[in-house]
Amino acid sequence: MNKLMVMTAALLAALNALATDLPEKKVLTLEAARQVAAAAAAEAQRRHARVVIAVVDDGGYPVYLERGNGAQVASSQVAIDKAHTAAIYRRPSKVFEEQVSHGRVSALALNGVVPLQGGLPLVAGDAVVGAIGVSGETPQEDEDIARVGAEALAAGAVASAVTYLDRDAVTAAFVRGAPLLETPEYKVHASRRTGPGLIEVHAYETDVVYVLEGEATFVTGGRLLDGKVTAPGEIRGSQLEGGNVQQLAPGDVVVVPRGTPHWFREIGTAPFLYFVVKPIAVPGGAS
Amino acid sequence: MNRVPLITAALVIFCGSAGGQPATTSQTVLTLAGAKQVIAAAVTEADRLKAPGGSIAVVDAGGHLIALERLDNTFAASADIAVGKARTAVLFKKPTRVFEDLVNGGRTTMVTLPDFTPLQGGVPVVVDGQVVGAVGVSGAASAQQDEDIANTAARFDATVR
Predict the structure, then answer these.
(1) pLDDT band with cut points at 50, 70 and 90 for residue B16
(2) Is A68's Cβ below 8 Å from some Cβ in B?
(3) Residue whose C-alpha is closest to residue A170's, from A161, A179, A183
(4) Which ipTM was obtained for this model?
(5) Residue range B31-154, CATH number
(6) B70 to chain A nearest CA, in Å?
(7) pLDDT given at position A23
(8) B80 — contact with chain A (CB < 8 Å)?
(9) Which residue has the higher pLDDT, B72 or A125?
(10) How far apart are the first and last CA of chain B?
(11) Cβ–Cβ of B67/A34 closer than 8 Å?
C-alpha cells in the first residue's frame, strides 16, 4: 500500500467517524403535511370558516398550502408568515402577539417574526418538524383550527393513518363479515354473504368489489321501483326493473359507481366472500 | 354534485350606467378543488418524468396563492420561486419563458419590474379562453422540466373530476 492510499483510507475513516457523530432529525414529509392540513380543513369546514392553511418545514419554508373558496386573498401570505414564525422560533406565534400587546413592543424587532396569533409548531416526539399557520377568521379561531392540524400530528394520528391489518384480523373479519376500516373518505369491508340481499343504492359510495370465495348472481343498473331511504345516502328496495346480470366467481372485480342500483340476487356457492373498498364522495364536501 | 370545479363570479350588472354599458362583467374563477386538480396533474407528471423534486404553486387571476405543494427533498427556496413564476405568468398572461428569453436576449432592464420572476416554469391556466390562474413549477431537473410539468398541469380538464 502506498502512502497516498494510506492517507486516503485514514481520511475516509475520519469522515465516517464524523458522519456517525452527526445527529439525525425527523423531517416533515409532504404526505404528513397534507394530512395535517386535511385535519385543519375539516375543522374549518365544520365551523364554516373561510381560511388559508399553510404548512411549513422546520426552516419555515412552505411545504403545503390551500386557500378555501371565499377566503381573503391576503391570507395566503399571512398564513405562511404565521407558520414561519412558529417554525423558526419553535413556539406559537401568539406568544409574540401577546408580548407586543402587553408592552414589549421591542419584540417587533425580532427577525422573521410576524406577531399574529394563528401559527403553531408541529411536534413529532420531542422535535419541532415544522409549523402550521391559519389565517382568514378571528385570531382565536385561526389558532383553534391550526391546533386541530397540529394535534393530528402530535397525537400520532398522521402516522397511524397508515393501517396495517394482519391476516389473522382479516380472516376473523371474513368469518362473520365485518368492516375492516371506516373513515369519512373511504370504507374497507371484509364482506360475507350466505343468501341474497336487498337491492342497494349508495348515493355517496362507489363499491369496488374483489371476489375471494364462492359464486353469486349479481345484478347492476336498472331502475329501483320501491326504493326507501334507510340512512343518509343509503337506499334499499326489493323490486328492480332491468339491469345487467353477471355471474361472479373468485378473482372477479366489479366496480359499482355511486348511484347505481346493485343486487346480490342469488348466492350459488356459499359462503360468498368479497373484499370491498368504498370511496366516499359527499356532494359539496371538501375535496 | 360539484362536477365542474369552477364557479362563475357573481354576476351583477347595472344597466343604468353611462352609455348603457354594463358596469361589471363576469369572470370564471378557479376554485380550490380546481387548483388541487392542477397540482395533482403536476405531481403525476413529475413522477412520470422521474423529476428529482418539485414545488408546484397555483395562483388565481390576481396572482394570489390558492394551493401549493413541495415534494419531499425539494430545495426549500423552490416554494417561493414557484409562486413567483405562477404570479408572473398570470399577471402578464404569458409563460414566464417569454420573459426569461427577453432578459437573456438583452432586455436586462426588465428585471427591475416589481414582483417579477422571469424564469421558465410558469404557465397560465386558461379555461374557455379566459386566464383563470397560473401554475408555477420550480425544483425539477431543469428549467425545461419545470416548464414541461407546468404545461401538463395547465392543460387540466376543468370538466372532469
Answers:
(1) very low
(2) yes
(3) A179
(4) 0.82
(5) 3.30.450.150
(6) 5
(7) 85
(8) yes
(9) B72
(10) 11
(11) no
Please give the average per-residue pLDDT across B111-124, as a whole number.
96
What contacts A51, CB < 8 A, 6 or more positions away?
Answer: A44, A68, A71, A75, A79, A134, A135, A136, A137, A142, A145
Q: What is the mean pLDDT of residues B53-64?
A: 97
The answer to whether residue B158 scores a pLDDT higher than 80 is no
- What angle separates helix A139-154 from helix A94-101, to the nearest 10 degrees? 150
B115 interface with A at CB cutoff 8 Å: no
**What 3 state SS string does chain A have?**
CCHHHHHHHHHHHHHHHHHHHCCCCCCCCHHHHHHHHHHHHHHHHHCCCCCEEEEEECCCCEEEEEECCCCCCCHHHHHHHHHHHHHHHCCCCHHHHHHHHCCCHHHHHCCCCCCCCCEEEEEECCEEEEEEEEECCCHHHHHHHHHHHHHHHHCCCCHHHCCCCCHHHHHHHHHHCEEEEECCCEEEEEEEECCCCCEEEECCECEEEEEEEEEEEEEECCEECCCEEEECCEEEECCEECCEEEEECCCCEEEECCCCCEEEEEEEEEEEEEEEEEEECCCCCCC
Cell readout for A44 is: 374549518
Kindly state the average pLDDT of the residues B8-36: 74
Nearest residue of chain B to residue A66 (CA atoms): B67
> What domains, with CATH codes, occur in chain A?
30-161 (3.30.450.150), 167-279 (2.60.120.10)
- What pTM did the predictor assign? 0.65
Could you read off the pLDDT of A121-159 as tens digits, one per residue? 999 888 899 999 999 999 999 999 999 999 998 877 665
Cα B110 to its chain centre, rounded Å, is 21
Residue spans of chain A under pLDDT 50: 1, 284-287
Nearest to A65 among B33, B60, B65 (CB): B65
Question: Among partner residues A34, A64, A67, which is closest to B66 by beta-carbon distance?
Answer: A67
pLDDT average, residue stretch B42-65: 96
Residue A208 β-bridge partners: A255, A277
The grid cell for B101 is 428569453
pLDDT for the residue B15: 45
Cα dihedral value B63, B64, B70, B76, nearest 10: 80
Cα→Cα distances B54→A233, A254, B32, Å: 39, 36, 20
Q: How many CB atoms lie within 10 A of CB B88?
A: 27
